[in-house]
């Protein structure tokens, strides 16, 4: 039975919502609206000459070969980061789930990378893999790998992927661990009695039961790779060499801040806005419809 | 009777404090320098504050030049830009086209009733930051040009004469090959500021116009002419060929390659003369300084290199008072004094921006006592002048520099030739110039 709580005054709910609504309006709708408005204008940086050009900025963005390349690059980057952050996250969670003594300490230690700022994470990996001074670069050199992220585009790409994924492993770990602990032990015990070995138990019982968590983390991971990796890329490669690590969000920054191309940059950020809205909607639909096994 | 007086004290105190605050006008100065150079510039601000009581200069670092410029533009649009902003050479074209946003420094001094003669500044700086009627738009402050730093220890190890640095590109190539074949260093040569050195300074050194309309000086409708000057593609191809055996090794954009030279990895390094302080502090070897190499088969070469570094721009704003502009003029006047200019030049390796500071350093025997320190001056001032040694003035140049970096990096990765890199840079650069033209007209 459901109990309904009804506020006696009509106005109170709105007052309670007001702070959140104000924040949403000031920090989301207002800048979002500004970006949409600016994406229709051609102007000099100082705003002396402002012309309305309709959708020309969007046309230029989609006609720009560099932009289309950045779209593919971003897809590749985001998928790689998400997968590389989820697989170790899951593996570590499965192992942590079995730890009997000192589980809390282990879990806490696992969470540390998540607390590190993206730029710092980028610099950490940059140091380890710097061709001149990095310890890992030294190993690679001795293993006979020609490692040079300063000039080699795919080396640079792997560097930003590793740094971005590493940071997100902790987040995935935490959610997977919570998901694992929610799985009824009786199911696993029953399977064990039936003679299912650990690996079989994992992929016939655990993994399907984890699928809502996995799907949630996939979407969150993609959004993270799309938007929050700016700090890593800026600290590690600044989008180079030869645009090899220039993702969509980095391109917005470069065109807007470095080049002061306000219209083109605003048009690109509107495109990104559409992408993130689409991702969020997909997630909501699937989460609502997700299958309950309980 | 006691109570009212006690009550009055805080009110009186507040009144006193607010008049004291009002008496000092604050001048915001945004700089784009870090490290030794930034610390010294901040100290100049403090020195000025101690020297008088009417104004208080606040020197702040808001990020590298492009980030700082974006912040200043946003502040300008909000009606409150910094009073003075330091802007690097590549940003000059954009600043000059922003009429109404900046007040020419000549006028700032005139309004404040202070003597200001553009002829006091060294000719190269005057030509770069001035307008045809002789007025200066911005005040040259940190003036530099490209020089070649070389590791004397590595030269000796390779069996090269440490007192005879390469003068030409063929000499540099053979020195780099010798360094590699004897393994005196892991890489022969590297460079900072790729576009600045290989396009802008290189063009000046060979008197090449890499754009129409007098390198963009005569109008916003100028176009890039990189393909028409095959020497530019030859230079890129040279680097591409050298990259294969590490006689040249690319060290990244902007200043990143400095670490390669300072650590001893690369034996030769083209860099701004303003990079001297960092090298002198960091390098654990003997190093020498020489002029930027040239191609001896280019007609008339070597010509003078051109000016680099940054200048100081004064922003206009609707609510800015005459008192504030007077403070700006006072501070700029302080910065251009011989005392400040000579200390600046001696410590950092930048050139003295004024003739009198230059002369003061000469009279004091500074150049005689410090061999190599006259190299940038010889390269910038004493070498032959041509039609195209006076710098360029294109809009959106920071972006075009990045296009050049992008295309040359592709060539260095082996994805295209030097000629293709120049063709693509010209095409993409001209698209940006046309967009710029539309926003100024």
Describe this structure in words.
- The complex is a heterodimer of chains A (294) and B (441).
- Chain A is mostly helical.
- Chain A has one domain (57-289): MetI-like (MetI-like fold).
- Chain A is built from 13 helices and two strands; from the N terminus they run H-E-E-H-H-H-H-H-H-H-H-H-H-H-H.
- Chain A has helices at residues 12-38, 56-63, 65-98, 103-111, 118-128, 135-142, 153-181, 185-193, 198-209, 211-228, 230-236, 248-258, 262-289; strands at residues 41-43, 50-52.
- Helices cover 50% and strands 13% of the residues of chain B.
- Chain B contains 20 helices and ten strands.
- In chain B, the strands form two sheets. In chain B, strands 1, 2, 3, 4, 5 and 10 form a six-stranded mixed β-sheet that branches.
- In chain B, helix 15 crosses helix 16.
- Chain B is globular and about 70 Å long.
- Chain B starts with a helix and ends with a helix.
- Chain A binds chain B through residues 42-49, 51, 132-133, 150-153, 238, 240-243, 254, 256-261, and chain B through 66-67, 69-70, 73, 76-77, 94, 97-101, 243, 250-253, 256, 259-260, 263, 265, 396, 398-399, 402, 405-407, 409-410, 412-413, 415, 432, 435, 438-441.
Compose a concise summary of this entry:
The complex is a heterodimer of chains A (294) and B (441). With 294 residues, chain A is mainly alpha-helical.
